[in-house]
Amino acid sequence: MTAPPPSMPDHWHCYRWSGERRTYDDESARRPPHLVVQDVSPQEWKRIAAASPAFMASEAPPLEVPHWLLRPARMIKATFQEPEKASAWYRDQVTELAPSFMTDHDKDPARQAERFAAAEDRLGWGGDVVGGWYLRGTGFASVQLVACSANRVRPTIPCPMG
């Protein structure tokens, strides 16, 4: 007997961050204070996040994508219930950032079309979408769509919007 496929998330929260590579490379503020190897209760997730003010205050992407959901709701740039709308938001953000990408490879329209198709596919089955690019100079940009209620990787992390 096979298990039924996981259900689709209720919505996706969208995050965008641009900043200095030094900030992105500082992993200490990008992880909660405890390594969690298995899922814990929603209350325990909240306790873990609250134990690290640096993690909660940092707007740089967390090391584990679902950990965005532990951060304050004010960091959410948009929320969508429909995968198509989340995909369009992702496409708009990447298109806006593309002129600043460091490499021609990342700017290539065919490469971007592949990236957008992969994002649509992941959203179609309820996954997260993650993109990160080095920018001209010393910058880095990240655009992430995080499935919420429930996230497939960390289903017990509570929704940051309550």
Protein architecture, described:
The chain is of the alpha+beta class. It has 6 helices and 4 strands, in the order βαααβαααββ. Strand 3 and strand 4 form a beta hairpin.
Secondary structure tally, helices: 6
Residue share in helix: 25-40%
Structural class comes to alpha+beta
DSSP E strands, number: 4
Sketch the topology as an H/E string, one letter per element: EHHHEHHHEE
Low-pLDDT parts are: none
Strand content: 15-25%
- Largest sheet data: 4 strands, antiparallel
The value of Rg in angstroms is 16 Å
Span between termini = 36 Å
Average pLDDT, to the nearest integer? 93
Spatial shape: globular
Strand order of the largest sheet: 2-1-4-3
What's the arrangement of secondary structure elements?
Blueprint: E1 11-20, H1 21-25, H2 42-50, H3 53-57, E2 78-80, H4 83-97, H5 104-107, H6 109-124, E3 129-134, E4 139-148
Features of the shown structure:
162 residues; four-stranded antiparallel beta sheet; 6 helices
Précis, in short:
The chain is of the alpha+beta class and 162 residues long.
